[in-house]
Amino acid sequence: MQKRLLIVSNRLPISIEKNNEGYSFRQSSGGLISAVGAYLKGQGAKVFSEKLWAGVPDCGEDIWGLASLNHTGADYDFLPVFTSTGDYEDYYNGFSNSVLWPLFHYFPSLADYRPDFFEAYQRVNQQFAEKLSQVIHEGDTVWIHDYHLMMLPGLLRKKIPGITIAFFLHIPFPSAELFRVIPRAWQKALLEGMLGADLIGFHTAEYVSHFLKSLQLSIGLEHEGEYIAHQHREIKADAFPVSIDFSLFNSAHRSKEVSAAKDKYLAIKGDKKMIFSVDRLDYTKGIFNRLRAFEHFLTTNPAYIGKIVFIMVVVPSRHSIFQYSERKKKIDEFIGRLNSTMGTISWQPVIYQYDHLGFHDLLGLYMACDVALVTPLRDGMNLVAKEFVASRNDKMGVLILSEMAGAAFELTESLLINPNDVLEMAEMLCVALEMDPVEQGQRLSVMRERIERYDVNAWALDFFTQLSRIKERQKKFDIR
Ligand code: F6P
């Protein structure tokens, strides 16, 4: 049995909410939490004798102390990392989500290169390194996740040189041309930070090649295939498309709660067709273009007036950043206008919920809808697409998927669209709504088999296998 696994991410997998009885817990949102959380719950993670998840709680130390006591039954322990409110603001809302997020998702005009943001990012990464170095033992595996902590592998390597460190990026790595838009010293700090890991994982081969090209262009570091020699160590960069717990989604139809939720949504649907989408509120998700496409579809296909409903769930996210709060207002206005101009007293084209969605309702909606619309302008992977496919055990339903999502490389039997092409999206809606059930089943079967084969456990196993191989190679390969 392997020793301890330390998972490190900005956000802990639970969010704490105060209510009348005390505190309640909800799973945090985002692909990272769903994937890593699912892996830790499964059999695959049993190879580790102990698991610890480090991250910043979404409450202060006093509340964490009280609330975490009530949280039992997790498959791992928590290691809370506390930062000052000011530092967290500049590291999370600032450098992570107002520099790296927009730039890495190809929205360079939204990036705000403030030096104080970068300083806070360095400080918080350093705080993570301090906290972790207090608990790390020899033989531990440290798995660091995502763009908030790109400097952490390097900082930790300096403190404990012999340790096993892996890093996984859950968002796209942009083209080298775009990456070098960042001030030069920051490029160097980010890349050298990542190179502190032994294995660096990305969702797709494209992101790997962008990263390798950035090493050449930004810091003049060459590579041989996926291997990089840096500071007397050999490091590997490779693609591991993140996945889901296929069996959980595939068998969800057997759950009473999911069936009840499905029936509730089928009753709303009645004899109409139903389209469904769910995303965090984010400008990368293409929510406007999707709404515009739906409006265009209704205008050009009047036969569907009164005979279709679009259930759109938007999950609150990063609301203290202007681009997010502003978008919320605009989405509200768009839907209000669309419903009032095209709807009638007895029919509302868009049913809109701005809130978190529980697991049973999510599954009920996946199963009740005819078409799932997953149309981000840019997305590292997008697990909603995979979840929808896996939950359709009845082999019915159509996935319309953006070719700008990492998932499009695997889910090639979906109806692929360019999310900037509103007319194409509207046409594809027609194709989806009129698709013969046999074809729906054929397309879903191929995608379902693919996800089942490379589910979240296969993803993690693949990752850890490559990690032990690179550790073995490092022993043989003295590049000093
Ligand atoms: O899919 C993964 C992800 O996009 C992360 O990169 C991100 O941290 C998360 O989902 C959601 O964002 P946040 O943590 O800001 O709520």
Report on this structure:
Helix 11 links the parallel strand 11 and strand 12. 46% of the residues are buried. The two termini are 32 Å apart. The strands form three sheets. The chain has an eight-stranded mixed beta sheet, with helices on both faces. The protein has a six-stranded parallel beta sheet with strand order 13-12-11-14-15-16, with helices on both faces. The longest helix has 21 residues, at 115-135. The mean pLDDT is 95. The protein is globular and about 65 Å long. It is 46% helix and 19% strand. The protein has 17 helices and 16 strands. By secondary structure, the protein is of the alpha/beta class. It binds 6-O-phosphono-beta-D-fructofuranose.
Q: What molecules are bound to this protein?
A: 6-O-phosphono-beta-D-fructofuranose
Query: What's the mean pLDDT score?
Result: 95
Query: What value does the Rg take, in angstroms?
Result: 23 Å
| Amount of helix | 40-55%
GO cellular component, one term: cytosol
Protein name: Trehalose 6-phosphate synthase /trehalose 6-phosphatase
Family: In the C-terminal section; belongs to the trehalose phosphatase family. Belongs to the glycosyltransferase 20 family.
GO molecular function: alpha,alpha-trehalose-phosphate synthase (UDP-forming) activity; trehalose-phosphatase activity
Question: What's a concise summary of this model?
Answer:
With 480 residues, the chain is α/β, with parallel strands linked by helices. It is 46% helix and 19% strand. 6-O-phosphono-beta-D-fructofuranose binds next to α1.
